[in-house]
């Protein structure tokens, strides 16, 4: 643990991790805030490599950070390296995970087709964690799970939920004998579906829904009954409602 002035090169390096290209090259991503850092420190699947924190946070959490380099910085320095509008005490550089080994039998998994808004993706990860879903399969054009806005929106759930990015049209047919449900207009009322113990639930793009070629691979379309006049639901909101009904 040490207090030091952050050099310009270090500040620039940390700032660069806000971009996907740099994250991919370095194999690291940024996490910020006491809650998220605490969850990451408690889980071993995404190791924290370095921590930059205010003195108060460093003193309070000394027992949790043994073996991890902790640099004590000022609020002004935290502001320079933070991706947040309002920096919050601590920032960590965390090693990206490798592609997870996904098993879909005897459990419920989410499948996301074209969820491109980072806030939506992060919220869906958080919702999945709330309902005990520990894996999400994403189309290749979904937002990057390590985008700072995604990480922040998960509120720490990124430490417990694994994401696999793949070409869904090839991946879905390999999931033999696994029920596949697709959230869509004109499907079966979710209030009339019994709770499920196994299956894949596909959630589509915020504006365009599920791609036709992906929709064709679903066994059953499911719908949240509409009682008002809104044209559609936010993808994360829809995910929460569907999981609350089907699990």
Structural class by sheet pairing and helices: alpha/beta
CATH topology of the largest domain: Alpha/beta knot
Which series of helices and strands comes N to C?
EHHEHEHEHEEHEHEHEEHEH
The major pleated sheet works out as: 6 strands, parallel
In order across it, which strands form the biggest sheet?
Answer: 8-7-6-10-9-11
What fraction of residues sit in β-strands?
A: 15-25%
Radius of gyration: 20 Å
Q: Which overall shape is indicated by the principal axes computed on the Cα atoms?
A: elongated
Number of domains: 2
**Structure annotation, total helices:** 10
**Uncertain parts:** none
What CATH architecture of the largest domain would you give? 3-Layer(aba) Sandwich
Q: Percent range for helical residues?
A: 25-40%
- Describe the oligomeric state of these chains in a short phrase: single chain
- The residue-averaged pLDDT reads 93
CATH superfamily of the largest domain: SPOUT methyltransferase, trefoil knot domain
Termini separation: 45 Å
What is the CATH class designation of the largest domain? Alpha Beta
Number of strands: 11
Structure description:
The protein is elongated and about 60 Å long. The strands form 2 sheets. Strands 8-7-6-10-9-11 form a 6-stranded parallel sheet. Helix 6 (118-130) runs parallel beside helix 10. The termini are far apart. The chain contains 10 helices and 11 strands. The chain is of the alpha/beta class. Helices cover 32% and strands 23% of the residues. The chain has 2 domains: 2-95, Ribosomal protein L30/S12 (60s Ribosomal Protein L30, Chain: A), CATH 3.30.1330.30; 108-246, SPOUT methyltransferase, trefoil knot domain (Alpha/beta knot).
